[in-house]
Write a structure and sequence with these properties.
Its EC number is 1.6.2.4. Keywords: Endoplasmic reticulum, FAD, Flavoprotein, FMN, Membrane, NADP, Oxidoreductase, Transmembrane, Transmembrane helix. It catalyses: 2 oxidized [cytochrome P450] + NADPH = 2 reduced [cytochrome P450] + NADP(+) + H(+). Its main location: endoplasmic reticulum. The chain is α/β, with parallel strands linked by helices. Among the domains are: 162 residues, Rossmann fold, CATH 3.40.50.360; 149 residues, Nucleotide-binding domain of ferredoxin-NADP reductase (FNR) module (Rossmann fold). Strands 1, 2, 3, 4, 5, 6 and 7 form a seven-stranded mixed sheet that branches. A hairpin with a 3-residue loop joins strand 3 and strand 4. Helix 12 packs across helix 13 and helix 22 crosses helix 23.
């Protein structure tokens, strides 16, 4: 019966804690919590106020906070870096006049703070505004432009300002952005303290800027009642730091934005984070002649990059290795030295002139422009290092605003196409420290090409059509275009190694009509054919989808039918299968008198006028702005005058109206 013994009656024993114990325990815990809670409360509230700083985003986008230590801010709207360069020069100038300035990217700041500049004593906002494309703001000034347009109630009465505009007279909307900013700020109550400056890149942009600047600073001094310090000495913006023992994983090797971004690619891809696109095709387009015209295809599979026909592809090229090596030899420098150039102004958002730390070799290969003729400020700052008095005097003269100095700069630097290497070779006593040279040289910029494909047909591929730039200068040197020669060497190999191109897409207004039934007239001689290859592919694709497509007319021009008739097979096939309603080609040098696209337009004026005037045709022009685009526009004025029974003024207005309606679009360059 042992197994039948009753179990000990545990449930009947005294519990471990009585209900009174639990009550007291809970009470004590409650009191402790209450004491802790109450102990916090009596602390003085101002202690928390001190910690109550604005959110980081607010702090970063406020230029007023930074301006409390300075009085001049120079905003720049820059697409190719020139306006930014001018802004840096003006902010540096301020020091010479006993003031303090900073260059600022409007994209990085809250421009609504302009009205608060009245809080800063003797404050001045300078705007260096470039115009891009068809009178558009540059990418980094788009938000500022929108803000100006939308804020009619803004009161800028406390703002002192001036504008220097950068443009090109060969374009229809010459300096449109600079003119708009100048006019709009005045409308909103701001005070213009010096006249709008107009820089023309078709003439001599540098001379325009220097002449404006020479008059601008005395006007500023007079306005604020300050005297120039007369300090003409060189002012360094950055200090050199060498890194002899750095971990090479922390060193930039050509990345535009994030360190190692070329090794671990992460979308979205843009100007600060380009995609490394493998080159899958690189073929020569022309059959003869002394030029090299090429067709490249970039693979964008897996990048999530989207594009439309008419968009631009931007590529980041690298400088010719031979030129970089020569620069190192002339200056007797070990280009593999790892360095940083650190901004001496701690307030500046721009900590380095290019990604640092890096080597001189990487900086001169990927980040700095060593092929364009240097601007006068570079010559001025470098002059102090010339040991030959005559060479030093000539450099200072070229940087001055005297007529003699301007003429010397024009002939010796610009007309002779001397880059920094040529200048150092031809001035044997000039041997500047390489870090100062790197500080002064402008950034190497992305190059834009009209995309020669349609994403409807080639969703994972972007096509480029370009001509390799190479010419002999007056000094007998061979100058090579940076990007086109770099692209030419992007060979497609079978050994598994892929040549890649850092790229991103820039959206364009150059678009096919929304209605496929609208006729299109495309005029694109030479490499101006590029966007129209995309348009033709897209119109063909629409036809295949069973859509009704309007007339598609192409005007192409080249020198010789047997030499540089680009995409001849593709164009003739498009005509034979009805995608192109009519293909008109001008071979300028195949006969005694030259024949260009504008001559063919006049020959076909009746059918063109019918398409434009009665069928709502859209006109597209791509290529050279200086001559071709102007001559084509004149031809359309003639046609409107002749067949529309208009006066010259009416004909000009008629074409202008087409532009306003988006029916006359240009994608041109000079």
């Amino acid at each position: 019966l042992e197994d039948k013994q009753p179990l000990p009656m545990v449930d009947k024993e005294e519990p471990l804690f009585s209900s009174l114990d639990i009550f007291l325990f809970t009470l004590i815990i409650g009191l402790v919590i209450y004491w802790f809670m109450n102990r916090k409360k009596p602390e003085p509230i101002p202690e928390f106020k001190k910690l109550d700083t604005p959110a980081p985003t607010t702090r970063e986008t406020s230029f007023i906070e930074k301006m409390k230590k300075m009085n001049i801010i120079v905003f720049y709207g820059s697409q190719t870096g020139t306006a930014e360069e001018f802004a840096n020069r003006l902010s540096k100038d301020a020091q010479r006049y006993g003031m303090k300035g900073m260059a600022a990217d409007p994209e990085e700041y809250d421009m609504g703070e302009l009205s608060r500049l009245s809080e800063i004593n003797n404050s001045l906002a300078i705007f260096c505004m470039a115009t891009y494309g068809e009178g558009d703001p540059t990418d980094n000034a788009q938000d500022f432009y929108d803000w100006l347009q939308e804020n009619d109630d803004e009161n800028l009465s406390g703002l002192n300002y001036t504008v220097f505009a950068l443009g090109n007279k060969t374009y229809e909307h010459y300096n449109a952005m600079g003119k708009y900013v100048d006019k709009r700020l005045e409308e909103l109550g701001a005070t213009r303290i010096f006249d709008l400056g107009l820089g023309d890149d078709d003439g001599n942009l540098e001379e325009d800027f220097v002449s404006w600047r020479e008059q601008f600073w005395p006007a500023v001094c007079e306005h604020f009642g300050v005297e120039a310090l007369g300090d003409e000495s060189s002012i360094r913006q950055y200090e050199l730091k060498e890194h002899p023992d750095i971990n090479m994983n922390k060193v930039y090797t050509g990345e535009i934005g994030r360190l190692k971004s070329f090794e671990t690619q992460k979308p979205p891809f843009d100007s600060k984070n380009p995609f490394l696109a493998p080159v899958t095709v690189n073929r020569k387009l022309n059959k003869g002649g002394d030029r090299h015209l090429m067709h490249l295809e970039l693979d964008i599979t897996g990048s999530k990059i989207r594009y439309e026909s008419g968009d631009h592809v931007a590529v980041f090229p690298t400088n010719d290795p031979a030129l970089v090596k020569r620069l190192g030899e002339i200056l007797g420098v070990n280009l593999d030295t790892v360095i940083s150039l650190n901004n001496l102004d701690e307030e500046s958002n721009k900590k380095h002139p290019f990604p640092c730390p890096t080597t001189y070799h990487t900086a001169l290969t990927h980040y700095l422009d060593i092929t364009h003729p240097p601007r006068t400020n570079v010559l001025y700052e470098l002059a102090q290092y010339a040991t030959d008095p005559k060479e030093q005097e000539n450099m200072r003269k070229m940087a001055s605003s005297s007529p003699e100095g301007k003429a010397l700069y024009q002939s010796w630097v610009l007309d002779a196409s001397r880059n920094i290497v040529a200048i150092l070779e031809d001035l044997p006593s000039l041997r500047p420290p390489i870090d100062h040279l790197c500080e002064l040289l402008p950034r190497l910029q992305a190059r834009y090409y009209s995309i020669a494909s349609s994403s409807k047909v080639h969703p994972n591929s972007i096509h480029i059509c370009a001509v390799v730039v190479e010419y002999k200068t007056k000094t007998g040197r061979i100058n090579k275009g940076v990007a086109t020669n770099w692209l030419k060497n992007k060979v497609v190999t079978d050994n598994g190694y892929k040549s890649t191109v850092p790229m991103y897409i820039r959206k364009s207004q150059f678009r096919l009509p929304f209605k496929a039934t609208n006729p299109v007239i495309m005029i694109g001689p030479g490499t101006g054919i590029a966007p129209f290859m995309g348009f033709i592919q897209e119109r063909g694709w629409l036809k295949e989808q069973g859509k009704e497509v309007g007339e598609t007319v192409m005007y192409f021009g080249c020198r010789h039918k047997n030499e540089d008739y680009l995409y001849q097979e593709e164009l003739e096939e498009a005509e034979s299968n009805g995608v192109l309603t009519k293909l008109n080609v001008a071979f300028s040098r195949d006969q005694e008198h030259k024949v260009y696209v504008q001559h063919l337009l006049r020959n076909n004026k009746e059918e063109l006028w019918k398409l434009i005037h009665t069928q709502n045709a859209h006109i597209y022009i791509c290529g050279d702005a200086r001559n071709m685009a102007k001559d084509v526009q004149t031809a359309f004025h003639d046609i409107a005058e002749d067949l529309g029974n208009m006066t010259r003024t009416q004909a000009t207005d008629y074409i202008k109206k087409l532009m306003t309606k988006g029916r006359y679009s240009q994608d041109v360059w000079s």
